[in-house]
Amino acid sequence: METRKQFIRKTIGLSLFPLFGKTMRLSELHNLKNNLKATRRMPVLFLGHGSPMNAIEENEFVKGFRDISYNIPKPSVIICISAHWETPGTFVTATPNPKTIHDFGGFPQELFNVNYPAPGSPEWALETQKLIKITEVVLDDKWGLDHGSWSVIKHLYPLADIPVIQLSLDYRKGPQYHYELAQELSDLRDRGVLIIGSGNMVHNLGKVAWRRLNETFAFDWAAEAQSKMNAFIEEGNHDALIHYTKLGTAFEWAIPSPEHYLPLLYTLALQDKNDAVVRFNDKPVAGALTMTSLKIG
């Protein structure tokens, strides 16, 4: 069986001859190579998105987002599960040109001026709808890309040339349900789809040290929860992470509401037994948040 490199070499050779009545251009060859890369099983990401200001600032976390993209084949489409789209049911965005949603307040105008004009993909929305059997998925034409999505994806793909769709979080359902729903998306990894969960593993705005927003430190309970979460992830102990409400006070304070935590379970649910886990941006911020991010596979 010929290797991928051998195939690409043969394809390059074809560029010297007419192909279907025309000569293959270098740009076409580049697109072909990108498509070939996308046929590999894609990794899965969990991105600790933190403050919306990360969209326009240059810091170590932004660098971490950017650097991880260099190790990922160019995807055909991105499906993002963001902490900031909760719905009574499961919805998927199906508009060809999703709007950039500025779902926050109290930030400088520069942040509100950001537009991330990535296309949507009604076709992939429909495909996602067909794959999910655990519930009925509604095609949505009103939502766009919220800041849990665009504020991090813009650093991975600044040209906004990858279609992005969002899958909502059903706030009526528990962690086990979300984990099982995510497992139904597994086949998409073999079809060039990059699945991203965007939230924060530790996220308690009620206990944030607001005067120390730019400091990387954790309160004792946050450090305990972060350490235990990382250990469970390394061990592949997803069951403990699904049943986090049984893990004591540190987890109770780290996850006072589940919306920022559930995207992590979507990412973990798609982990194969041989997938390596790369942890990056693994730092706390302002005492009560963590920026911990994962690349699986």
List the SSEs and their pairings.
Blueprint (H helix, E strand, L loop, with lengths): L3 H11 L3 E2 L2 E2 L2 H13 L5 E5 L11 H10 L7 E6 L3 E2 L2 E4 L15 H4 L9 H10 L5 E4 L6 H10 L7 E3 L2 E2 L4 H9 L9 E7 L20 H16 L2 H5 L6 H6 L7 H8 L7 E4 L3 E2 L3 E2 L2 E4 L1
Parallel strand pairs: 3-10, 4-8, 4-10, 5-9, 6-7
Antiparallel strand pairs: 1-2, 3-14, 11-14, 12-13
Helix pairs in contact: 3-6, 7-11
Which blocks of ≥5 consecutive residues have pLDDT under 50?
A: 1-38
Question: How many extended strands?
Answer: 14
Q: How large is the share of residues in beta strands?
A: 15-25%
Q: Quote the CATH topology of the largest domain.
A: Protocatechuate 4,5-dioxygenase, Chain B
How many distinct folded domains? 2
Description:
It is a single chain. With 297 residues, the protein is an alpha/beta fold. The protein has helices at 4-14, 26-38, 60-69, 109-112, 122-131, 147-156, 175-183, 220-235, 238-242, 249-254, 262-269; strands at 18-19, 22-23, 44-48, 77-82, 86-87, 90-93, 137-140, 164-166, 169-170, 193-199, 277-280, 284-285, 289-290, 293-296. It folds into two domains: 1-38, no CATH class; 42-296, Protocatechuate 4,5-dioxygenase, Chain B (3-Layer(aba) Sandwich). It is globular. The protein starts with a helix and ends with a strand. Mean pLDDT is 89; it is low at 1-38.
